[in-house]
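step: validate -> pass
step: tokenize input -> pass
step: predict -> running
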Amino acid sequence: MTNKFEAIEKASKGEITIEMRPVYVVSGAARARLTERAALNKLASLITQREFHKDGRPTNEPDMLVKNENGDEVVRRGEPTASFMGFKDGVLISLLDSLRQEKEIAKLEKKYQAVNDKSQLLLKELIAAQNK
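step: predict -> pass
step: emit ->
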């Protein structure tokens, strides 16, 4: 077997395929996220919760007692408040803007490095041609 996941792929007759991709871990979150967007969304929620708790504002509507299918009363957590969701959306937009800017900077740095390497090569060729 060439990779450690080949066994499950063969056993499932190709129904399960393993793809290697990034996993994003948000500090303070209970589990990892598989997409960049999900990780940023969770981070926005955590930042918003911290701010709301610091200010003493509620993040959710009040909890409710409801009956489940067995007839037992259980507590159902209230939905997030409109102000919480609005603040979280603003934080998420800010995080997405920062990420977009960082990606653009990385792209420009890579482009600069490629042009700089080409420039150095041309300078060496020029010096070699002048010294003939």
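step: describe -> The CA atoms of residues 4 and 18 lie 10 Å apart.
step: cleanup -> pass
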